[in-house]
Amino acid sequence: MTEVGDGYAVLSDGTQVPADVVVWSIGMRASELTRQISAELDHLGRVPVDRHLRALPAVFVAGDTAAAPFDADHTVMQACQHATPLGKVAGYNAAADLLGLPPREFRPGPYVTCLDLGAAGGVFTRGWDRTVMAAGAEGGAIKKWINQVIHPPVDDAEAILAAADQVRIELPFFPRAEEDDAA
Ligand SMILES: Cc1cc2nc3c(=O)[nH]c(=O)nc-3n(C[C@H](O)[C@H](O)[C@H](O)COP(=O)(O)OP(=O)(O)OC[C@H]3O[C@@H](n4cnc5c(N)ncnc54)[C@H](O)[C@@H]3O)c2cc1C
After folding, report:
1. 48-62 b/e with 16+ CB inside 10 Å = b?
2. What would the DSSP string read from start to end of 137-169?
3. What pLDDT sits at residue 98?
4. Residues enclosing ligand 1, CB less than 6 A?
5. Index of the ligand 1 atom closest to the CA of residue 81
6. pLDDT in tens, 97-116
7. Residue whose CA is closest, atom 5 of ligand 1?
């Protein structure tokens, strides 16, 4: 895309496409810090880790920098739904390692996506094939619910510790068979 005008966008080959809204997608890339941990990064520049999120004997990796296995066919996405539980498990395992306790496995909830579409509501998908489960006003209501529950507590030590233990967040919308979820 080379230009966005009033009611149109121009592609790099000169084609003018009528458009009310232009969504520009540039992809994602992990921090360059990952190079200090591994020479074998994945295509997004992430550090390969095992199911305990361990990259090296004394290094655990979380969030957008971790190429953690979700299931046999997928690694996690660089998104909040995975970054947050990855942080919980990596933090737990780093502390457990120091204390000589057994590590816990990373077992996230089902993979979903939810987009707010403004006046058009929203769209909610479930599973890696991104099956649309809700759209319009119903999809918009789900997005609002997710935004309200996704934020961790910040000023209550007991609530923070309790939330830290919730790695697998269940979404009460259109549950599907267990095989769609992390093994
Ligand atoms: C514009 C945008 C929109 C997004 N929208 C969504 C969305 O709608 N839904 C969704 O699920 N996800 C969304 N994401 C992705 C989501 O924000 C990330 O997946 C998530 O924040 C990753 O968490 P993280 O802790 O791994 O990294 P970050 O949240 O990026 O935290 C990394 C922290 O490390 C700090 N840091 C970096 N280098 C150093 C250093 N050398 N020393 C010390 N500190 C350092 C950074 O300042 C930062 O505070 C969005 C991302 C972007 C950029």
Report:
1. bbeebbbbeeebbbb
2. HHHHHHHHHHHHHHSPPSS-HHHHHHHHT--SP
3. 97
4. 31, 33, 63-64, 78-81, 83
5. 11
6. 999 999 999 998 889 999 99
7. 79
Question: Quick one: which H or E segment has residue 94?
Answer: helix 80-99
What amino acid is encoded at 53 in this protein? L
The residue whose CA is least distant from atom 18 of ligand 1 is 79
Tell me, in angstroms, the distance from the centre of ligand 1 to residue 5's CA. Answer: 31
In degrees, rounded to 5, the angle at the alpha carbon of residue 28 between the alpha carbons of residues 90 and 26 is: 165
Average pLDDT, the chain: 90
Determine which residue's CA is closest to atom 52 belonging to ligand 1.
Answer: 79
**pLDDT tens for each residue of 12-22:** 999 999 998 88
* pTM as predicted: 0.87
**Whether 105 contacts 90, CB under 8 Å:** no
pLDDT value, residue 179: 47
Distances from the Cα of 47 to the Cα of 18, 93, 132, angstroms: 41, 17, 31
Chain centroid to Cα 92, Å, comes to: 19
**Is residue 60 within 8 Å of residue 93, measured between CB atoms?**
yes
pLDDT value at residue 177: 58
